[in-house]
Amino acid sequence: MAVAPEKASELKQIIQQQLLQMDVHGRIREVLAETVREELAPEHQELSTEDLVKALQQQGIINDIMKELKFVTDVSEKERTSAPKPSTHFVDREPPVLKKTNIDPTRRYLYLQVLGGKAFLEHLQEPEPLPGQICSTFTLCLHFRNQRFRSKPVPCACEPDFHDGFLLEVHKDSLGDGSKMVDATTMLSICDPVHMVLIKTDTFGETTLVASYFLEWRSVLAAENSITNIAVELLGVGSESKVSVGVLNIRLEMYPHLNKTLSPEVTNTQFALERQKTAEKERLFLVYAKQWWREYLQIRPTHNVRLVKIFAQDENGVNHPVCSYIRPLRAGRLLDAPRQAARFVSVLGYEKAPVIGGGGGKQEQWCTLLAFLSRNKGDCEDHANLLCSLLLGFGLDAFVCVGTKAKGVPHTWVMTCGTDGTITFWESLTGHRYIHRPINPDDPPLVEQPKPLYPYRTIGCVFNHQKFFGNCQPSDAVEVCVFDLHDESKWKPMSGEAIKSVCSPGSTSSVPSFPPLCASTIDAAVTSNEIELQLRILVSEYRKDLGLSTVWDDHLSYLLSPALAAYELERTTSVSAGNEEFQDAIRRAVPDGHTFKGFPIHFVYRNARRAFATCLRSPFCEEIICCRGDQVRLAVRVRVFPYPESACAVWIMFACKYRSVL
């Protein structure tokens, strides 16, 4: 079989790397030395090639090499003749032992290897996990130029055993780059860093953000042989953003190797110029923002207590303009409509940023999108920023609103402005939508005013990726606000040019680009069955402790499915459907003289034991699970609805039917 010259050299390189990795050359030298000592000493005879091969076979070295080499034979004729495809990002699931990636020999790749960690001192006393024992794990999530990767989970330890490699395509067609092989000078102008997020998952499946780091990879352009090793010190997040949490050993390598490397002086000068340019843009924006704020306070002295937020801190404690946390985000084929996007954002977990110590103060932390998606939960600001970005991607005129809820609790939500002037509020934590109809305080008392259904009390400002408006109406109460953003007597705008200078994706800025959303890796049917089976066991055990027997009615369980599907449809579209058929089916399944009771409940996690404990807190559910009577039959149905990023909505319905005995 003829092989193209570039493929032949690529194969040789792969084989050479495999041999080096297994230290085959060293082992062969040892066997040769031993064979020479044993065979050659007595008679001083010459050893043939066959003798040496036989010796290597006896030592098991050849067998070891053959085991390591994997041959792929199931390649169709179409694949053999088609042009090489650019690499795609790995699917966000636990990776198998070996991955096949299409490599285009005409393009540049950055091979990033994580070769272990050290000095994770928080886990110094962590005991060695026993085989099969569930333990806390670290997972590393990466984003680079529209590509996302995830490492294999490794047990938490002082020196975590990370050994993962990620092949990052430097020049991408999808980003408008040309298809030619890029040189070092062109790559030096690509200022996108590799964003690395370290997540800890505990034994209950709860995730914690440990560190977020932006790796400057371009130092490899000046490295000898296009290979460099870096020790990356990771700092904590939030209030611990100045504290070291550990060190990762990283090896960077360019594929194919550069014919001509740059000098370190050139790369360092480029980095210094970029930092200087970014700092100058941010300084000018800060000067403008201060001037804008002074003008805003001069309109009305009470403006200084309104929630007008111009800057926000990210997980690393770095201040960014709030507009930089928003960007139109298209979900491809993963989400089909704005309301589905709102449902997806609402099923991502809600958790306030952790605070060390008491006092009830709120820790401010607006996470970057990769950090939010990697841990699958965040504060209300993270949810609102993501929902606003998705709605902008769907072509709506969306803004994030900053204000308060009842009792003056700070809150953020999303607003869309219709072409007909309709103002719609979107609650990112629940997916609920509210139409805003302002109350006119000048109307006579007898005029009936609309009663607001939304939970929002005051509003200080609204913003998106291009615009920022401060509320300068006499009252900041939401119910009396008029959202005519073009009226400068009601909303004080910021300069669009000033916002664009620091927030546009093309600008040299410290704001990371947005990662693409990943498809779900959850098999809905399998997961639904698993949770349902676990719940059946938990219910049977619970009833056994009460001295009650348990008889399951599989047919009744199946009949609960349409109700669960209708509940999720209603949450997504606000349209109720299929209730008549469900009620008719239940009436036919429950005989005369029998009573039916059902209890639906909704979760955003897949832990059956935790869900069961929550269900028992409801007296209605406990009444069903502890049902006593004649001919008691129990039913449970679980339906998992998967969403992008492996988020999911889990609907559970417990039911029972029994004969009423008076």
Index terms:
alpha+beta; 662 residues; 17 helices; 23 strands; seven-stranded antiparallel β-sheet; C8orf32 fold; five-stranded antiparallel β-sheet; Pathogenesis-related Protein p14a; Immunoglobulin-like; 31% helix
Description:
The protein has 662 residues and is α+β, with helices and mostly antiparallel strands. The protein has three domains: 109-262, Sandwich (Immunoglobulin-like), CATH 2.60.40; 273-353 and 363-503, C8orf32 fold (Roll), CATH 3.10.620; 524-659, 3-Layer(aba) Sandwich (Pathogenesis-related Protein p14a), CATH 3.40.33.10. The chain is built from 17 helices and 23 strands. It has a seven-stranded antiparallel β-sheet with strand order 17-16-15-14-18-19-20, with helices on one face. Strands 2, 3, 4, 6 and 7 form a five-stranded antiparallel β-sheet that branches. Strands 5-1-9-8 form a four-stranded antiparallel β-sheet, with no helix packed on it. The model is unreliable at 70-97 (pLDDT under 50).
Biggest beta sheet attributes: 7 strands, antiparallel
Total individual domains: 3
Q: What's the total number of strands?
A: 23
CATH topology description of the largest domain = C8orf32 fold
Structural class: alpha+beta
- Rg from Cα: 31 Å
* Helical amount: 25-40%
CATH level-two architecture of the largest domain: Roll
First and last CA, distance: 86 Å
Report the sheet-strand fraction.
Answer: 15-25%
